[in-house]
Structures are given as structure tokens and as C-alpha cells.
Amino acid sequence: MISNFKYINTKSTEVVLDLENPTNFFHQIHSKQYQCYYEERHSHIGWNYNNKEIIISDTGSFIKGLPSVCKKFVIAIFQGKNGAVKNPNNIVIYNLDGTKHKQIVMPKLLSELCLKRIDFHKESNPPIESAKYEDGLRFNHINWKKNKQGVLINVVTIVYDRDWLEFRVLNVNSGKVEGLVGQGKV
Description:
There is one protein chain. It is globular, with a radius of gyration of 16 Å. By secondary structure, the protein is mainly beta. The N and C termini lie far apart (36 Å). The protein has 2 domains: 101 residues, no CATH class; 74 residues, no CATH class.
């Protein structure tokens, strides 16, 4: 069983998330820690599994993540140009023992907003050409959301051309990014 899931920032401040409260992982965190969480980048994530502490880090990247809804995996998003895991395929799903389960490949974008923008730029889909620019194409966030049936699912946010967002279902078993659950503009 996974426990003590935490973000560790560049000043080694640890913020432990409450995984039993999926609507607010941070509700038990002291306000000073919460402020550090937002002011500092997360240099790594960590958790305990089978009485061992697992730490995921990557020199040159900032990492954020979350256990999967089923709590059998940890989903890590790597951000930064100098790390080993780069955009646009900047998500890795880990087994609880810290070994790699799947590296996620950027899917074709589906949202009306992103498709219009792809057409405007005359890019391929997925628009891999944009990945060479900062915030051109990347996975940005992982969260738990309830679907229409009220079941918690893993949802990833994709950023395209800095301003355009897609919210997609992540199947942690297959490593596939599936159905569209929302879209937006920053």
C-alpha cells in the first residue's frame, strides 16, 4: 500500500498530500507549507511503499505527480528543458516500487479549440513541431476527477501553444491517453 505521498521542493520542504480526500489533497497542510508548495518548484516526489521510501527526481526537471486513482501506480509529470524526460512525452507512470511502468506518448489532440489552432498553424496532429518551444506542447497536470457516473478517474491536462488546454482521461494500465473530458484557454 502506498503512503506518505509528498512533494519535495527545491528547499527540501516536504508537503504530504491527503490521498483520502480527493477533493482537497492539501486540506491538512499548514498554511506555511502550502505557501512553500506554491512558491517553490517541486524538485522531486516521493512516497512510502513496503517500508521503503521511494523518491523520483530528475536533474534539470521539476516534477509533480499523483498516485493513480487505483493507488497501484504513481504518475509523474516532468517539466523543464534540461531533464531526461522531455516534452511532449513528459509523463511517466511508475509502479509503487519506483520502477517504470509506462512512458506516455502525446496523443492526437481532440478538442475543438486545439483543432482550430492546429489548423491555423497548419501543423500535424499531434502538433509535435510545437514541442520545441517552451509550453508549445506538453502534459501539464494530473488530477483525480469524477466522471458522469460519479467514479474517480485520472485526468491529465495537455497544454498546446501556451494557451490551449485539453483535459483527457489517462488509462494507467495501458498507458493510453483516452477520451476528452474538457477543454479551455489559459
